[in-house]
Amino acid sequence: MGKKKDKPIDVNNMTPEEKLKFEVAEEIGCAQKVLEGGWRSLSAKESGRIGGILNKRKRQMRAEAEALLNHQEE
């Protein structure tokens, strides 16, 4: 198994999913911790909270996209 590289977080060069994850981290007050120590510096509780909020947002975005598609078909 390969080890993940411990590279610093580059806020100017993130994928859309990473941006969303970082936005959630900002909302719960962990952004500075992530910038200083990377994602691995978060506690299990913080990581779980970010994951839960991300999952909720993705479900919400999926539902909105489906509603938009259904509306366009009518």
Task: Describe the overall structure.
The chain has 74 residues and is mainly α. Helices cover 66% and strands 0% of the residues. It has three helices and no strands. The longest helix is centred in the last third of the chain and has 30 residues, at 44-73. The protein is elongated, with a radius of gyration of 16 Å. The mean pLDDT is 88.
Task: Calculate Rg over CA atoms.
Answer: 16 Å
Uncertain regions spanning at least 5 consecutive residues = none
| SS-derived structural category | mainly alpha
Whole-number mean pLDDT? 88
Distance between the termini: 50 Å
- Report the portion of residues in β strands: under 5%
Report the order of strands and helices: HHH
Binned, the helix content reads 55-70%
Overall, the morphology is elongated
Largest sheet: none
Number of strands: 0
| Number of DSSP helical runs | 3
> Which oligomeric form is depicted?
single chain
